[in-house]
Write a structure and sequence with these properties.
Shape: globular
Family: Belongs to the DegT/DnrJ/EryC1 family.
EC number: 2.6.1.-
Pfam families: DegT_DnrJ_EryC1
CATH class of the largest domain: Alpha Beta
Radius of gyration: 21 Å
Number of strands: 15
Number of domains: 2
Bound molecules: pyridoxal-5'-phosphate
CATH topology of the largest domain: Aspartate Aminotransferase, domain 2
Strand order of the largest sheet: 1-9-8-5-4-2-3-14
GO molecular function: transaminase activity
Keywords: Aminotransferase, Pyridoxal phosphate, Transferase
């Protein structure tokens, strides 16, 4: 690395702001000048534009992606006395949301190639639930790193068991499976709008989507103290609102989401090519799907060495995630595992490493990452 070159960051949310600075500044000024800051015209317009972009009939904004998941569970009446199945190889937020709703998390193992839930395990626990747990009422499918889960067998298993399937799309805005966008196939879907996500606010934000009008209506009330009429709670609710400034910013950023996802795929293809002939395999893409590369993740048994060698070439890396949820001290004894355990999850946590990935990476920066990857072969 040349001493004047800085390390290429693994993520850079500021670059997303600078890429649309004039439009974003104008949107913020519009929201500020409106004199209305919470649940107003910008939020309503963003909900409509997001639902239209996604292809659902309804979308409901809220404070963050964790709340979006918890609000869906609450809206479905899933809480105390219920189990929700998901994975341990995820942002801790997925499991935190299940606990926020009052339900018990049941964590299943992943497919080692795609890092997504093993559908056979889901089918097995739905058919023959582990003893000592409350009834399983929902499964949360996490489309990790920007790639769809193997959703068809999961949906079939949930339908057979009469259980809801909720999609955690926090890393997969725009990902496709069988020609359909993720977030349109389960009963409801949660999206995080955290600054580094494929669609990121400049602060916290979340949105959930569904075709179930009554569910959306209940959640719309629950997110604001259960109000349908101002100051009168008809449901037990919480406070989880999306503010007008973030909604105005998100309307600007939604316009470039598809183009940004295409740029992420272009960067991924360049990394794939740079890995050819080397010791590492590019990420596995599921057949009949379109990955949106929230993260470009490699696997290696020599992670510390790989990270150090890339760093010496000016390339920053990250680990998503270093410790599976069930192995984190806060969750010791609080989560149940499936009968097969979580061996693949534990192995993945030791081996995954994420390369720099955001649409504003310049061709020159991508070239420097590729040079670092080619150096690994030597
Ligand atoms: C980011 C993320 C969330 C939570 O979103 P927040 O907006 O940070 O609350 C949930 N699930 C997954 C898989 C995530 O990556």
């Amino acid at each position: 690395m040349n001493a004047t070159q800085s390390i290429i960051a693994q993520a850079d949310p500021g670059a997303g702001y600078r890429a649309q600075q004039a439009e974003i500044d104008a949107a913020v000024a519009r929201a500020l000048n409106s004199g209305w800051y919470i649940l107003g015209k910008e939020g309503e317009a963003f909900e409509q534009e997001f639902a239209q972009w996604l292809g659902t009939t309804r979308a409901v904004g809220c404070a963050n992606g964790t709340d979006a998941l918890a609000l869906i569970l609450r809206g479905m009446g899933i809480g105390e006395g219920c189990t929700v199945a998901t994975v341990s190889h995820t942002a801790v937020a997925t499991v935190a949301a299940i606990e926020m709703a009052g339900a018990t998390p049941l964590l299943l193992d992943i497919d080692p190639d795609t890092f997504t839930m093993d559908p056979d395990e889901l089918a097995a626990v739905l058919e023959d639930p582990p003893p000592g747990l409350p009834p399983i009422r929902a499964a949360i499918a996490v489309h990790i790193y920007g790639q769809a889960c193997d959703l068809d067998p999961m949906l079939a298993a949930c339908q057979r068991a009469g259980v809801a399937l909720i999609e955690d799309c926090a890393q997969a805005h725009g990902a496709m499976l069988g020609g359909r966008r993720v977030g349109t196939m389960g009963n409801a879907a949660a999206f995080s709008l955290y600054p580094t996500k494929n669609l990121g606010a400049l602060g916290d934000g979340g949105i959930l989507a569904t075709d179930d009008f009554e569910l959306a209506d209940r959640i719309g009330a629950i997110r604001q103290y259960g109000w349908r009429e101002r100051y009168v709670s008809s449901l037990v609710g919480v406070n989880s609102r999306l503010d007008e400034i973030q909604a105005a910013i998100l309307r600007v950023k939604l316009q470039v989401l598809d183009a940004n996802n295409a740029r992420r795929r272009e960067i991924a293809a360049a990394y794939d090519a740079a890995l050819e002939g080397g010791p590492l395999s590019p990420p596995v893409r599921r057949a009949d799907s379109e990955h949106v590369f929230h993260q470009y993740v490699l696997r290696t048994g020599a992670r510390a060495e790989l990270m150090a060698r890339l760093r010496a070439d000016g390339v920053g890396t990250g680990i998503h995630y270093p410790v599976p949820v069930h192995e984190q001290s806060a969750y010791a004894g609080r989560t149940a595992l499936g009968p097969a355990g979580c061996a693949e999850t534990s192995r993945a946590a030791q081996e995954v490493v994420s390369l720099p990935m955001y649409p504003e990476l310049t061709d020159e920066q991508v070239g420097r990452v590729c040079a670092g990857l080619r150096n690994l072969a030597g």
